[in-house]
Fold this sequence. Notes:
The protein is mainly β. 0% of the residues lie in helices and 55% in strands. It has a single domain (5-307), classed as Neuraminidase (6 Propeller). The protein has strands at 3-8, 14-19, 25-29, 34-38, 44-49, 54-59, 65-69, 74-80, 88-95, 104-108, 114-118, 120-122, 128-130, 134-139, 145-149, 153-154, 157-158, 161-167, 171-179, 182-187, 193-198, 203-211, 214-223, 234-240, 246-251, 256-259, 265-269, 276-281, 287-292, 297-302. The strands form nine sheets. The chain has a four-stranded antiparallel sheet with strand order 1-30-29-28, with no helix packed on it. Strands 2-3-4-5 form a four-stranded antiparallel sheet, with no helix packed on it. Substrate binds at residue 133.
Amino acid sequence: xxxxxxxxxxxxxxxxxxxxxxxxxxxxxxxxxxxxxxxxxxxxxxxxxxxxxxxxxxxxxxxxxxxxxxxxxxxxxxxxxxxxxxxxxxxxxxxxxxxxxxxxxxxxxxxxxxxxxxxxxxxxxxxxxxxxxxxxxxxxxxxxxxxxxxxxxxxxxxxxxxxxxxxxxxxxxxxxxxxxxxxxxxxxxxxxxxxxxxxxxxxxxxxxxxxxxxxxxxxxxxxxxxxxxxxxxxxxxxxxxxxxxxxxxxxxxxxxxxxxxxxxxxxxxxxxxxxxxxxxxxxxxxxxxxxxxxxxxxxxxxxxxxxxxxxxxxx
Length: 315
């Protein structure tokens, strides 16, 4: 049977686990403005101090990290998802930051040095606009990266955003617009399909790629079920395993929802934190890691595939 084990606790709103060959996991701590390595024995060490609010992480060829810097927030106990009777109280972002930084993609060197890579991108119409609140990122086989910009809400106005593609030396450009609060992003094992989760709609999009950053087709692949005490839901970070299954960190119910490559619901890996923000699997596919942000934990689940059955056949 699959078993849950807390690998680390006391993390400051962890996100975006990146699994290394030595068994360590690097996560962002959004409420602390830092990147942290969790060793297999649970010991933690600081990789880099980014300031602001580091969210999605990805590893480039050669080992450098690209960080989605969302600019920061003030964190505290607050009602979620709305402020009325019956809602739960969680540790979460509750307001603008006291010391904001410019939303950007940041580059972290092997020695922990942090530099700003991009603060803006080229739209499909050719204009240049600033990043609003970069959310998540994945790297392709060519060393390029796909980025979701989750957008920002100010008073009663919300900025619409989309999907971006870039390279370290070639800039950042928009390839899909608009999306409704795009969040998790990951590639299929062969790199021909790209998956994007929209938090508010709970929708998982599938984009067909004809080359790096070249989208030729799109379809709504699946919708994450709602659940929990208030029957709500949200799609946060996601990853794809070697069999092509799409694993989506699920807000509201907590845990991870698993879909087959063709979009059928395969099962779920539960967790006791409704703010389950992201997910990754080990290189051998046996172990699942999820960040439980409001409770500050990194949890590992061994033999997780027993919960969702045998590997699916290719579509």
